[in-house]
User: Fold this.
Amino acid sequence: MHSNDYERAEACKEPHLRLAAGQDPAKRAQILAGAGRVISRMGYDAASVNDIAREAGVSKGTIYVYFSGKEDLFEELMEETRERLFQELEAELDRPGDISERLVRYGEVVTRKLCSDPVIRAHRVMIGVTERMPELGIRFYDRGGRRGTILLMTYLEAEVAAGRLVIEDVQLAASQFFELCMAGLFRRRLFGHMAAEPTEDEIARTIHAAVEMFLCRYGKAGGAIG
Amino acid sequence: MHSNDYERAEACKEPHLRLAAGQDPAKRAQILAGAGRVISRMGYDAASVNDIAREAGVSKGTIYVYFSGKEDLFEELMEETRERLFQELEAELDRPGDISERLVRYGEVVTRKLCSDPVIRAHRVMIGVTERMPELGIRFYDRGGRRGTILLMTYLEAEVAAGRLVIEDVQLAASQFFELCMAGLFRRRLFGHMAAEPTEDEIARTIHAAVEMFLCRYGKAGGAIG
Amino acid sequence: MHSNDYERAEACKEPHLRLAAGQDPAKRAQILAGAGRVISRMGYDAASVNDIAREAGVSKGTIYVYFSGKEDLFEELMEETRERLFQELEAELDRPGDISERLVRYGEVVTRKLCSDPVIRAHRVMIGVTERMPELGIRFYDRGGRRGTILLMTYLEAEVAAGRLVIEDVQLAASQFFELCMAGLFRRRLFGHMAAEPTEDEIARTIHAAVEMFLCRYGKAGGAIG
Amino acid sequence: MHSNDYERAEACKEPHLRLAAGQDPAKRAQILAGAGRVISRMGYDAASVNDIAREAGVSKGTIYVYFSGKEDLFEELMEETRERLFQELEAELDRPGDISERLVRYGEVVTRKLCSDPVIRAHRVMIGVTERMPELGIRFYDRGGRRGTILLMTYLEAEVAAGRLVIEDVQLAASQFFELCMAGLFRRRLFGHMAAEPTEDEIARTIHAAVEMFLCRYGKAGGAIG
DNA sequence: CATGAATGAGCTTTCATTCAT
DNA sequence: CATGAATGAAAGCTCATTCAT
Assistant:
């Protein structure tokens, strides 16, 4: 906002860097980490720049060297948080197996991750600011949650093509499976009604029921699993 | 404080003589309405008491006559919002019909309501403060969302008893149906990724798919509907 | 916060490199001076932090860098005021002379000081808050007024030991002399009934009468003075 | 301030009343009593009109019927407090006896009263506001403390005329005696350094020493007492 | 006359941001 | 580049006072 045109031009030439000359990527990460801890604990508004600086172990001024303001810092934090989350997710999904094995694995990985404390907290923060910063929410969903659904859609389409599943609306089916996997878990976690992360057993039972119902509906020969 | 029991009894018998706590319920509602508009637009933290007063058309001081502080006002607002929401919901659910008719009606009513602009906004606000005011989130879910599920459970149990459905875990089944109804809608709405309320057609298709899948899994004779 | 002991030691050795706690003692003094002027004029409650900031020539926020709040600022102000007052006092008391000379000098110094405008104003403020901040009043007296009395007691005890005075209760005698010195002056000043500081002549007459009476009662050979 | 001329004229006709037609002197006293309790506990500034209304058991509005504002109420309170105090005092002073008996009685009555909790609190309040409301302090001293001194002066003059005392400056002598009576007590009480009212024994010893010293200096035959 | 709900100015304090060092 | 003291706008809240009932 206060950078001159020359600096802007420079920045545009190398957008992959996002760092001005002389800036330290480690310090940037350190600030984001501190901000993540404070903001997930207190929320965006209630977390002051002072709090963030203290938690990150840098001075207030330094934050303004790396970010143009609190909102910018927050946007970058959400960007980074989302990317980290979904990269971890995708890494776990691409493994071989038959239909029900792969659906179970997908469901368990997604549910375990999305219901974990840090991810629930990130969701709370993100949803909380969506009204005021709509683009953030949109991008979070678009480059986040939707990516998981697309991954699943791609897989389902392959199974449909192979004749092992019969699905008219693959996108809807993917959404259905996604929601079934977290039925009774994610929403309660979001509202704090379920205080602790779900146990492995709770996850397993939920996913089992999800896959069973999904294959019952879309599977060729009925969905006996496990 | 100094009135004896007799006087208290008197006061209760003739409430028209002296308003409860000497306050004007209409003004109280007016404040809550203004607060609801501002807070759902800006969020709890970003909405200042000044903003609320201006929107409600009262002075700042007046707010403190009716509420002990901003947080108290917020709690009452959430309480009132939730109660209004779920009373409207419950009123629409109890009508006759066969299984698929009743599930479709339930699904449509719930989805239409929960994906509506005001309810989505209320959810955003509520989820946004859950980290800092956990009891509020818990109560919102407990006396809100859960109530809808319980209503559904009661109905499902009746159908199971009547031998028309076969469900081992009714609570899980209710959660599954609930989530299926909003698959691809609610979450996108929450993040602003779907800007407008879903059309009646979108709702109908989603609910149709939900009921079909549900009856496919739990119905006695398979779930052909409509 | 993150500096090790070695660094701390370094910092202490070269205080010009980094100010203690990173703050500027001159600015701190400037704030206290401004606060002193405003508070002695308006009293603690009526002097707003805004007033103090304006008078001190700093911004409101700066005050909260140096003090944790208005009350803290006030406590420090009283502490500093008292210390300055009584250090000035004590510096003037220890000079040689015979009994009546020394008592006269003690009386004149104390009376002139305690009846001066700034000290009277400080007393008004201090007494005014004593009900709500009892510890402040106690400490003010304990480390202030009492110190003057103790100084006098020490001297009187020496004269008693030397056989030049006969006093059974030295503490009471010191209090008596103290009050005699300000008879008709201090209380009137406190209530504003005497608008201007007493003249040197008024002081001289009062002190003369005080010493005469004191030596008449406790002196060995009667109290002829001057 | 907002009363019309007619009402003003009425009020001027009967200034001894200070009550407009229809006002209840008992309620006025009730308000002053409540104000006295709250203000002596919290100080003038910190005591809100709300607090006073609650303590007095009247509504806020009623206070503005009897007084033109908080400051007016306070002035009347100080007026009333002072009058009550000194009327009680004077009532106890005019009894027969020889010189030392009468001085002892005078001293004990004055000291006991002035060092009592309510009077100390009133002094704190009065002194605390003297800077901002100088006339109040002046009048408090003028119609209060000075009255006691004048009473004493009158008595001393009589004794001088009778040849039983030798005093050049009766006013100064009266002040001296006054201060001697409270030496080591009043000031400590004012600052809260002496928490409880002085015991009868403490008073007796202080007064004894005061009278002894006073008669030693001004008495014809030396001041052997008791 | 008595009431207390309503007012909005003003309170203490915190905030994101700047900038001299 | 890193720092944190300085800023002043704005926060939540309380106040003395008014006025319809």
Summary: Chain A touches chain B through 52 residues (CB under 8 Å). Confidence is low (pLDDT under 50) at residues 1-17 of chain A. The radius of gyration of chain A is 21 Å.
